[in-house]
Amino acid sequence: MLVLDAVAVRVLGALIEKEATTPEYYPLSKNALVNACNQKSNRNPVVEYDEDTVGDAIEGLRNAKLALMITGNGRVTKYAQRISETLNLGRRELAVLGVLLLRGPQTLGEIKDRTERAYAFSELDEVERVLEKLAEWPDMPLVKKLGRLPGQKESRYAHLLAGEPAAEAEDSAPAAQG
Predict the structure, then answer these.
(1) Rounded distance, CA 43 to CA 162, Å?
(2) CA 79 to the chain's CA centroid
(3) Which of 6, 49, 100, 111 is the most buried (most CB within 10 A)?
(4) Pairwise CA distance, residues 161 & 10, whole Å
């Protein structure tokens, strides 16, 4: 099974997000990718990566066929996600996975709200069907439904690209909605 480290998860999530939300600037230069990873809003946890850290993660993603480097004649090297092609993900699945990669475990409502710019789900049942599909993905499950913790009203869902989520990740919801 594919297991990514935290930096690769953030880089891949940033590539997925920016492809959908800012297509005019996509693929991303390394500088733009560093900025996307270090963005303070819509991220959990907030990080401060440098170019070398992001560059190492990109290399690992390229080796796993989850990212691509694009070079032109004398132009800046740019980077794009390839997880959609490698795992044959549709727009709905990619939108959900991108939110989980950038924000950690989320409820159905949080996923529906936070995927709005990448894919507008019509109802929570549609989000749940996509999550169930990702949980039963051929070759390896990509998401997992987490049990409710005391004080929580709803179950959350987490991606499995970094392996099984840690127990403490199950209760670390982002403080602000957005």
Answers:
(1) 16
(2) 15
(3) 100
(4) 11
Return d(Cα 136, Cα 127) in angstroms, integer: 14
**Chain segment 29-87, per-residue pLDDT in tens:** 999 999 999 999 889 999 999 999 999 999 999 999 999 999 877 688 999 999 999 99
Tokens coding 171: 């209760």
Residue type, 76: V
Beta bridge partners of 67: 81
Instruction: Write the secondary structure of 21-63 as one string of H (helix), E (strand) and C (coil).
Output: HCHHHCCEEHHHHHHHHCCCCCCCCCCCCCHHHHHHHHHHHHH
Find all residues with CB under 8 Å of 27, minimum gap 6, and list them. Answer: 19, 68, 70, 78, 79, 80
Please count the helices (runs of H) and the strands (runs of E) in the chain. Answer: 7, 5
Distance, in Å, from the CA atom of 8 to the CA atom of 59, rounded to the nearest integer, reads 9
Beta bridge pairs of residue 144: 158
Name 89's Cβ contacts closer than 8 Å, sequence gap at least 6: 83, 97
CA-closest candidate to residue 165, choices 110, 101, 84:
101
**Eight-class DSSP state of 10:** H
State the number of CA atoms in the 13 A half-sphere of 95 facing the CB: 21
Q: Are 80 and 65 in contact (CB under 8 A)?
A: no
